[in-house]
Design goal:
Distance between the termini: 48 Å
Membrane topology: Multi-pass membrane protein
Strand content: under 5%
Domain TRAP C4-dicarboxylate transport system permease DctM subunit: 12-434
Number of helices: 21
Subunit structure: The complex comprises the extracytoplasmic solute receptor protein and the two transmembrane proteins.
InterPro entries: DctM (IPR010656), TRAP_DctM (IPR004681)
Subcellular location: Cell inner membrane
Length: 444
């Protein structure tokens, strides 16, 4: 059987398994095992086990559970509530000020936690009911939270960037810093659209501004309360800044920086928010362990899947076919973007990266594209998948927070933000320096 036909059969088998609800790691591992047994026989069982364990035995992967623990400590504390209060005070007078402050809170919280679902849940539980109470349309209230949560996989420190760096053997520090400007650019685009949408719907401002008398009576109390909330958040932001400085300055490896960051965030959560009880600490450890095991299983089985495709010459055949396309390199980039976009519709970011990055990187380099620039493009494509059906994880998180908002309203409210991400990709294609200027300035 020729490699292309075999590859199509493998792809169909994988899609069928995932469509019937098989966990991604087990679907990848099962298809890989059957393909290897068919192609090579029982002797391949030895290589299956060796490939599985060798991949996750790399020391660099220690950074993943540590960053997840760091994020879980932040997500399980009232940090999101404090961020929300602080930003609401400063941005409340803008058109759609509360929605804009929610996007700001999502951006910062996503960077602290590194988890899109955690960001949607933490900020959405407070922000969505408050926005609806103040008259915001359901679509705007749901869409701004769903979109804001996606920024966690782009703004550093990002677990997906770590996985990309390990999968492609590129500098994780440089990847982190490449995501800074594009991340805040996307946040800015989200805020601009939110203000436009709210202005068209009549404008929604902080109720404090509705009555001058009420403003005089309450402003001091609100300023004091929100300044205290901001002071509680600043140490966590300091930890993130310290991690980035350690990585960019060559002071520590990603694993070392992640370990120190996890310890400090856990200690801050205990000291600042008085989380002395065993229950909250047990919850943090449980969530960290669960997500770490899930990600590591996906990485290990994706490596076996890549080995299976390579051993059957599927990867080489597809890569050669794409590389031999006599088309403009931007047409090639368009095809790759479309492929990543469709993959993001069905698979979580981690799975897409570990399955496709090693295959796509040689093609990207052959077309004379920068691998760090491409990492940002890839990540934004995966962000779009988080707020678009059929999987759209963030959509279902929002539905769980506000079950009385229809899934159609949530989707329609999120789609303009997906278009903002497409605009972000176009801007990066036109001006690659958006992603590359800061890494080149800092790291040469």
């Amino acid at each position: 059987m020729d490699p292309i036909t075999l590859g199509i059969i493998v792809a169909i088998a994988l899609i069928v398994l995932m469509a019937i609800g098989t966990p991604i790691a087990f679907a990848l591992g099962g298809v890989s095992l059957l393909a290897l047994l068919y192609d090579r026989g029982l002797s391949e069982l030895t290589y299956f086990g060796e490939t599985f364990f060798d991949r996750i035995a790399e020391f660099g992967f220690v950074a993943i559970p540590m960053f997840i623990l760091m994020g879980a400590a932040v997500a399980s504390s009232p940090t999101g509530r404090d961020l929300y209060r602080s930003l609401d005070l400063w941005m409340g007078k803008l058109p759609g000020g509360l929605a804009v402050s929610n996007i700001g809170a999502c951006s910062i919280f996503a960077a602290l936690s590194g988890s899109s679902p955690a960001t949607c849940a933490a900020i959405g539980k407070m922000g969505i009911p408050e926005m609806r109470k103040r008259g915001y349309p359901d679509g705007v209230a749901a869409g701004c939270i769903a979109a804001g949560g996606t920024l966690g996989i782009l703004i550093p420190p990002s677990v997906t960037m770590i996985i990309y760096g390990i999968s492609t053997e590129t500098s994780i520090g440089r990847l982190f810093i490449a995501g800074v400007v594009p991340g805040f650019m996307l946040a800015g685009l989200f805020m601009i659209w939110t203000m436009i949408a709210c202005k068209r719907a009549g404008g929604y401002s902080n109720p404090m501004a509705e009555s001058a008398e009420r403003l005089k009576q309450t402003v001091k109390q609100n300023v004091d309360s929100n300044m205290k909330a901001l002071v509680r958040v600043l140490p966590f932001l300091g930890v993130v800044a310290g991690i980035l400085f350690a990585l960019y300055g060559g002071v520590a490896t990603p694993s070392e920086a992640a370990g120190v960051g996890a310890f400090l965030c856990l200690a801050l959560a205990i000291l600042i928010y008085r989380m002395w009880q065993l229950g909250p600490l047990k919850l943090i450890m449980r969530d960290s362990l669960r997500e770490s095991v899930m990600i590591m299983l996906i990485i290990a089985t994706a490596e076996v899947f890549a080995y299976a495709l390579s051993s059957m010459f599927i990867t080489q055949t597809v890569a050669a076919a794409i590389a031999n396309l006599e088309v403009n390199r931007w047409v090639l980039m368009g095809v790759i973007n479309l492929f990543l976009l469709v993959a993001g519709f069905f698979l979580p970011p981690v799975a897409v990266i570990v399955m496709t990055a090693p295959i796509l990187l040689p093609i990207i380099l052959a077309a004379n594209f920068d691998p760090y620039w491409f990492a940002v493009i890839l990540t934004i494509n995966l962000e779009i998948g988080l707020i678009t059906p059929p999987v759209g994880l963030n959509l279902f998180i929002i539905k769980g927070i506000a079950p009385d908002i229809s899934l159609r309203n949530i989707l329609m409210g999120s789609l303009p933000y997906a278009l903002c991400m497409v605009l972000g990709i176009l801007l990066l294609c036109l001006f690659p320096g958006i992603a590359l200027w800061l890494p080149n300035l800092i790291m040469g």
